[in-house]
């Protein structure tokens, strides 16, 4: 027996005892290859996955290091089968590599004949490969670089991509660090990306991913295409780039539903790129409109499937993905790995919070009891109606009113999913005759911008928003969020909502995150997922009854 | 010894041996000692049987065998002419395969016959060396102790699971392929290892076929319950010892048998008579290495196979597979770590107590857990069995290994309530076992589950459901999933059902309700699933018990000597008229090449006396040269009334 802080389980999870004196050391040792799955207060759970191990290989770690880290920090003996599995999995990465050959162009090379033969005979790579040059080399059709990497990952032999990148059209971009400074972890993230070539940077919401993007652009010094989730977020990218870099407003173009500008730095929405007319993507040409030197993908975990297909054709350009989480609700983590690139930087939320950049949050679940009449209505309703009935009970409105009153002088966001509920909330939370301001999918971009500005400046203390506010909009001054209804408690949505509150800049103030839940209904079941997610992220979580407010 | 005349037969030689030497022979050939032979004549007769001789020949090394072949080819030869194989000859003599007669050394007749049919062995005459590499003893001990702990833990997990959900016994007696797969998944091991684990569990009498209703299923035995109460190291020792002396070959699971059918785990046919000896010989080779020396990766195993081949050259062609599986299984079971036989493994092999050597290396059982805000409880090591059992009633196991992760959910808490816990008891239990403060969401969940627990009550006599919760009943009656139950709302708080109560209960639980069963007097029944057990199979005493063996040998030697004294007091040349005595006398005559007078009852019922020179006894027939007919003839042994030497 050893007295290490790590316990290796036979199901490939690693348990790290946080209060152990050697915990920090062990965490540093396993962070490169194990994915942090849960970080509640005492024991953090990491998981060993193939992708995680390959990410580690891509970052230059080898199996000996991984095994040594496990053996050195483990309290008990490490299951032998697990060690063998780690070594075998890691050895699979890089048996094959994509390279640039002077004569043949793009080639797939392997020094391992049996693996090479196995791969060549697979149906999955049929049509992607050209003539066999030698026993260890085969020509790859230039257009299939991305597809081949995807196929090889599926076969379990992920290829290393040494084929390099085109420089793209040069364009001077510098960071303009007057009055602010790149935080150390942001600089480190941009640095790791640049050395890795292409890949994903994982940072929590509010940790300044935009600035990492800007720093990457300053490294590339080339024309850049930035893909974002929606128009509001596009505007924010633009503002931020104008403020933080040498770029001027004229150099940055927006390519969205309303405006179609192509400039040295162009910000496009996923929506416009994936717009389909008569079976074709009319805006796809944007990707070839300039000789882009860098492509930035914001919120990689939301990247729509068609963008993956387009990205497969962009393998010769440098790509950086920015995200708060590698977990995709659709399970396509492998596509992110093979098409955008391996993870290049990762910082656990809690660590960044401890550095003081993110405010800690107090999460409270408020349970309301449905009145008898509503319970019977709920019980007899069709299953698909149930969530709506439970989520939209009028009792919740009273609770929201109480909470808003409790936090009267703090900027507050009320988040709901259903339009009529938003309407009702707006009416009942208004002052006098005036309803509280709302933002929904129907609100114009201009109006949204105006309301956000007013909220930010403190002119409005309360905003009722629908799920449009979930993604990538910066509301730096919200201190209280009250969630009344939401779509089925997905982990991703949770990360976003919490991100709303965890923006930096308020010195040590505790943010409050309330969710209001109807007891004994599906609403409460979803709340369990939420509770689990938040607790697993290490946030304090309490449950109180509405009557105790 | 030199003063003694040269022996006339093997029996004669044995009579001249010291007691110590006879005891040594019986240790080398234990089949000679059971039951204790009457005297040296019978001992010699046993040694000259085909079966016993074959068994002894099978244990000869390549060098010994070559010398023996040589001797057989030459016939009786004076010792002085056999300089080269002196050491081998001594060994062969010790084994009573060769005796020193008047004409010199000669092989026992039956040995000569057996070897005459076999081809002389070829191969390296010097003993092949093992390929070894240096290992750190601490790392070896940790690795092996980890494996040992895992084996005990896995057997416990599996048998606990099978105690409630037993897999059925196949008609051919084994365990179904699918059940083995499920077990492997449950234990996070591959099927090969799962097959080994279930196999050693049966060898250790922890698992056996038992009946569940009409069907036969694999069930934990009542010995398993006793085993569970032992210390982990002692539990390991029981399992490891059972494996060491088991002739079963779980490594063949998944392969094909001679008929081309795939072999199931636990199949009765998974037995190889050479398994135990090969395993022990292989491990003994490792035991001869120093504690820091282990089989080298890659080349170590083939060198061990070559060594065993040299030591047991007459063994069948699958010997390499048996050696490989012995080392592999020993590694899984924690006797061997990184190619080194551990101190505990050495003790086990020598028949000493291995548990006390292993115990300090195993993690200490804990009396506490860490409860976290995400509703998990983590035991950062093995828990005290009683604590683990209680925790499992109120929480589900999520991950196992060195640590165990338990998760609390309303379902698991409801199970606790079903087993008779109250909310207050659960609170108190959590307080007492958690080293960290119980998080508020968990306390809330306990209260919330207790609040909804038992809101629906089901009656036997009329199959009714009653509940104070009108909405829940309305919900239930309106639920299309409950249509098959024939529910009807009698009053806002009472519903009747046309379905039998067991169907009803299951369905209600499926629908997410937590019904409790009410007896006719209105009291509430609590139920928890019964765990099933089968009877412990009676095991034969293990052969490898050093003390017992010594006692047996001593008793046998004493018996032989006593018999010899009786025989000598009667005079040497007695008439053998018991069946055993007759056989012994015939064998002695074969060895000595002498003539005897037999009293024989022929086919016509005529009793006659004949002078014959016995050649061999086989399959109830004596083949002998008959002096009267001057020809070789066969005599039925059971018709031979008596045998006496010629005058």
UniProtKB/TrEMBL annotation, chain A:
PROSITE patterns: HELICASE_ATP_BIND_1, HELICASE_CTER
Enzyme Commission numbers on file: 5.6.2.4
Transmembrane spans: none
Catalytic activity: Couples ATP hydrolysis with the unwinding of duplex DNA by translocating in the 3'-5' direction; ATP + H2O = ADP + phosphate + H(+)
UniProt cross-references to CDD domains, sorted A to Z: SF2_C_XPB
Pfam family, one: ERCC3_RAD25_C
GO molecular function: 3'-5' DNA helicase activity; ATP binding; DNA binding; hydrolase activity
Every Helicase ATP-binding domain range: 190-344
Coiled coil: none
Record-annotated Helicase C-terminal domain positions: 398-549
Keyword annotations of the record: ATP-binding, Helicase, Hydrolase, Isomerase, Nucleotide-binding
Mitochondrion recorded as keyword: no
Family statement drawn from the similarity comment of this UniProt entry: Belongs to the helicase family. RAD25/XPB subfamily.
Protein name per UniProt: DNA 3'-5' helicase
Automatic annotation (TrEMBL), chain B:
Family annotation (PROSITE patterns): WYL (PS52050)
Lineage top rank: taxon: Bacteria
Helicase XPB/Ssl2 N-terminal domain ranges (all copies): 369-490
InterPro entries recorded: WYL_dom (IPR026881), XPB/Ssl2_N (IPR032830)
Residue span, WYL domain: 582-644
One Pfam match: Helicase_C_3
Protein name per the record: Uncharacterized protein
Species per Swiss-Prot/TrEMBL record: Nocardioides jejuensis
